[in-house]
Design brief:
The chain is of the alpha+beta class. The chain has 2 domains: 2-100, 2-Layer Sandwich (Phosphorylase Kinase, domain 1), CATH 3.30.200.20; 104-180, Orthogonal Bundle (Transferase(Phosphotransferase), domain 1). It has helices at 2-7, 9-16, 61-73, 115-130, 171-180, and strands at residues 27-34, 39-46, 49-57, 83-87, 94-100, 104-105, 143-145, 151-153. The chain has a 5-stranded antiparallel β-sheet, with helices on one face. Helix 4 runs antiparallel to helix 5 (171-180). It binds zinc ion (ZN).
Length: 182
């Protein structure tokens, strides 16, 4: 399945991504919060619930699949957005990932974050690793905070699954501890 996906991402991606959204669900998209070469990110509402919609161009479908695999694995983790579905037009020229809106990106440097935030971020990433996911692109911009101040890890477009974490020797956790000065 993995090999087939990498050879024919556009033809098989949506079988893998099922279940897709029901056509009965109403999605409204408003603000564009990030415009990119392979994907652009919007805020919106799905049946009244606040969501983030990430629209992938076809050349970014590998990233979309990585996100879907990771989010499905992380579905019970409160410090990552809940996966809600994927939708695409019939020609599959693009596809959109929909996840729960967990707040706005931290506009900060690692060093400027207070200790409580740094500890919360580290714990959140340890939990992601414990669930078998290696994030692959841990930057401050990929951390968000909701209105209650809770932090979440987002953007799993570079993630790999089946990570067997050895905390003290794990390269991503080592880098993170260094960045967070922990
Ligand atoms: Zn690890």
């Amino acid at each position: 399945m993995e090999a087939a996906l990498s050879r024919h991402p556009s033809s098989l991606a949506f079988d893998y991504c099922s279940p897709s959204l029901s056509t009965a669900q109403l999605l409204f998209v408003d603000t564009c919060i990030q415009f990119g070469h392979q994907a652009s990110v919007y805020r919106g509402r799905l049946d009244g619930r606040r969501v983030v919609v990430k629209v992938y161009e076809e050349l970014g479908f590998d990233g979309l699949l990585r996100e879907v695999r990771a989010y499905k694995r992380l579905v019970s983790l409160p410090t990552t957005p809940k996966y809600l579905g994927v939708f695409a037009p019939s020609d599959k020229a693009w596809a959109a990932l929909i996840v729960e809106d967990k707040g706005t990106s931290l506009a900060s440097d690692w060093a400027a974050l207070p200790l409580a935030d740094r500890e919360a971020i580290y714990k959140a990433v340890v939990d992601v690793h414990a669930a078998g996911i290696y994030h692959g692109d841990l930057e401050v911009r990929n951390l968000v905070r909701d209105e209650e101040g809770r932090l979440s890890v987002v953007d799993f477009g570079h993630a790999t699954v089946d990570h067997a974490c050895e905390q003290d020797a794990c390269p991503e956790l080592l880098d993170l501890r260094q960045n967070l000065d922990l």
